[in-house]
Design brief:
The longest helix has 6 residues, at about 60-65. The strands form ten sheets. This protein has a 22-stranded antiparallel β-barrel. Strands 3-10-11-7-8 form a five-stranded mixed sheet. It is globular. It is mainly beta. It contains five helices and 43 strands.
Length: about 725
């Protein structure tokens, strides 16, 4: 029985109903003229300068995105944001490994514990699982990264927020771009931006990316299309967004310690044996409407937003047919169709000197999930890596409903109090249609109230201090709730949501030449979620008690002269378990049997991570030459801390230049050499992998040449 046919062309999404939500002012497109005036909206009541934001927030602009690589992976540019770990798995069958102050570090696949948005549309589903493969970095005007207590205002699983904002059409221009690089990397992009009469504008773009990969069984192909239509009137602003993403990728899997040390560019034999791979199809769209009221009105602005989309995934895993002999096994091929949607309504009021935002939102996902055997026939006449017999058929649903309030009250001319609360409910349920191996149906509800309170002090015109405290909540995902640790049928009803208490002290300085951001933070969690058992191809999860994370993060930029500039960021993080607990140390394992003592480091975190770069405009040649250095400490691969990926430092070089070829045409060039010393290191790890295949190699020395032609008309 083959996977069901998907309807994913852009034409389908055009027939969808309302699309696009975010609890902050996601449609705002204000751009600062310099870094001290740069405007952000994430975590704020309204668009405001980074300097005035009462929380730690990083910003990556369009130029930085272009200089950082082929604009395919967030890891290219987000290394410049302190407090954030973004590891490129060099495996397009798996999303990047992303964590913020330790939130999300435990994710073995996908993104956990963070809220992700692209043009206001959540890339994090209501159950807390997210993905970023469809992010259109080439079409972005900026990316904002919110860390710390104020992220709890985004609801469930919001240990941090990464929000991408597409660029509106301000200039009439067309773009054609080509990328070529090592390991068969090639990419073509085209876009068209057209400001129109009557306040309207249109931007459409399309790209195709291909790579062979530096490991066997690691080729990938991605097609991405986006359209943005905007209209601005005297009192109203409307934005319509549409995107379509299709991707095929082979999966080289992780390596064991022995395999990694023998050959860091190898692929585990199971990858080719089972032809491990993944296909993704995603179409989504959204609409955003804001109305501004007359000057002096208490009701300043109202905003209505909605989004709807579909996502389909089929993934072939490396699970032996013998393991699937267990009647409770769900098969070696994952196949699901997802419909997701949401809506948000908010109002901004000004009551004297007090600004207030009130809002409500709802998000919903429905997964038609199936599992198949990844083989046909019987030994010795057996074919592996194909779709076989049905082994799982169920409907998964997750719904969140939230109400939120945010207030800003000036106390003096230089001090303001900012606070808020978000209260909601997450409902998850499963209807099992494949009952020959037991009924895994079930339902759970999780409720939360996330308050945050902060203070901002403008100590000087160019210096701001801020402090905040909050409580957050993270529900288990549908995958974590799927199976009970004792192996019986039904939902894992014993699994609780994870709660956190966060505090932050921060400082922002904006001088003529020097800019410095710094933050101290501490986070305590209860009911941390971890793996309980691995048996018969089924993983179950448990609450493992308390954790503690604390550290310091900082970023600085300094312009030495008109020709020289430098920037650096550094994060020091201590992340540990505060309670003893038991885990499974291998497979099969029907009950936790290996002790993890209090004080062990949380797997997937690094005690130190940072980046520095120096840029030089020599004058004798056009453009800028730059040296980049990225480094991080060792990364424990499992909670028992029996092994770790070694720390490393990598050096990159780049040269970028713009050439005014004609009065209306500009050629932008980028040449990068990454990992100049050709070091063989583990760039990321698969946390707590039951097979011991923890290590994912970073790419060896690689070269990229990018050419981008901009034609104004």
């Amino acid at each position: 029985m083959p996977p069901r046919q998907r309807l994913t062309p852009i034409a389908r999404c055009a027939a969808l109903s309302l699309c696009s939500t975010i609890v902050s002012l996601a449609a705002a497109q204000t751009e600062g003229s310099d870094s001290s005036q740069t405007v952000v909206v994430t975590g704020s009541l309204r668009a405001q300068r980074v300097l005035d934001a009462p929380h730690a927030i990083g910003l990556i602009d369009a130029q930085t995105l272009r200089q950082s690589g082929p604009m395919v992976n967030l890891s290219e540019a987000l290394l410049r944001v302190p407090g954030l770990t973004v590891s490129n798995r060099n495996n397009y069958a798996q999303d990047l490994q992303i964590s913020s102050r330790g939130f999300g570090a435990r994710a073995g696949f996908g993104v956990r514990g963070l809220r992700l948005y692209t043009d206001g549309i959540p890339a994090t589903m209501p159950d807390g699982q997210g993905q970023v493969a469809h992010f259109d970095l080439a079409g972005a005007s900026r990316i904002e990264v919110l860390r710390g207590p104020f992220s709890v205002l985004y609801g469930n699983s919001s240990g941090g927020v990464i929000a991408l904002f597409g660029a509106p059409a301000r200039t009439r221009e067309a773009e054609a771009a080509l990328d070529a690089g090592s390991f068969g990397l090639r990419q073509q992009r085209v876009s068209l931006a057209v400001p129109m009469d009557g306040g309207a504008d249109l931007r459409i773009s399309g790209s195709r990316f291909e790579i062979d990969g530096f490991r066997p069984q690691s080729a990938a192909e991605r097609k991405l299309g986006n359209a943005r239509f905007g209209w601005r009137g005297s009192s109203d602003t409307v934005t319509f967004l549409l995107s379509d993403h299709a991707q095929k990728a082979q999966d080289p899997l992780g390596l064991t310690r022995e395999q990694f040390e023998a050959d860091a560019e190898s692929t585990t034999p199971q990858a080719t044996q089972f032809n491990t791979r993944k296909t993704i199809r995603q179409t989504q769209g959204g609409i955003h409407w804001s109305h501004r009221f007359a000057e002096g009105s208490r009701l300043v602005e109202t905003t209505l937003m909605g989004y709807q989309g579909s996502r389909g995934v089929t993934q072939w895993l490396a699970i032996a047919p013998g393991t699937q002999g267990n009647p409770r096994h769900g098969g070696g091929v994952i196949d699901f169709d997802r419909e997701y949607s949401g809506a948000d309504a908010r109002a901004l009021l000004r009551l004297g000197s007090t600004d207030v935002v009130l809002g409500v939102s709802q998000e919903r996902q429905v997964d038609d999930r199936r599992g198949f055997e990844n083989f046909t026939g019987t030994a010795p006449n057996q074919t592996l890596g194909v779709v076989g017999a049905l082994r799982r058929d169920e409907n998964n649903r997750a719904i969140t409903r939230d109400a939120y309030l945010q207030v800003e009250q000036p106390l003096t001319g230089t001090v303001a109090l900012i606070g808020g609360v978000r209260s909601g409910r997450v409902k998850v349920d499963v209807s099992d249609n494949f009952l020959s191996n037991g009924d895994d149906s079930g339902a759970l509800k999780f409720s939360y109230t996330n308050p945050v309170l902060g203070v901002r002090w403008r100590a000087a015109d160019n210096w701001t201090l801020h402090a905040s405290a909050a409580r957050g909540f993270e529900s288990p995902t549908l995958g974590e709730l799927a199976y009970r640790p004792d192996g019986t049928s039904g939902f894992n009803t014993a699994l609780k949501g994870q709660t956190s208490r966060q505090v932050e002290l921060g400082s922002k300085w904006r001088g003529d030449r020097l800019q410095v951001d710094a933050a101290l933070f501490a986070i305590d969690t209860d009911n941390e979620i971890g793996v309980a058992t691995n048996a018969g191809g089924r993983s179950s999860f448990q609450n493992v008690g308390r954790t503690r994370r604390y550290g310091i993060e900082g970023a600085a930029a300094y312009r030495l002269s008109a020709s020289w500039r430098a920037a650096a960021n550094l994060t020091l993080l201590h992340a540990e378990y505060r309670d003893d607990f038991l885990i499974c140390s291998g497979i099969p394992c029907t009950a936790p049997n290996t002790p993890v003592p209090a004080g062990n480091t949380i797997a997937g975190t690094q005690r130190v991570i940072g980046m520095a770069e120096v840029g030089w405009r020599p004058g004798i040649v056009p453009g800028e030459l730059a040296l980049e250095v990225r480094g991080q400490g060792s990364t424990p691969v499992n909670d028992s801390n029996t092994d770790a990926a070694g720390g490393f430092a990598l050096i990159n070089l780049r040269w970028s230049a713009d050439w005014a070829v004609t009065d209306s045409g500009t050629l932008q060039t980028l040449l990068r050499v990454d990992n100049v010393a050709d070091r063989h290191v583990a760039g990321s790890v698969i946390v707590n992998d039951a097979n011991g295949r923890f290590f994912e190699p970073a790419a060896p020395r690689s070269v990229l040449l990018s050419l981008r032609w901009l034609q104004r008309f």
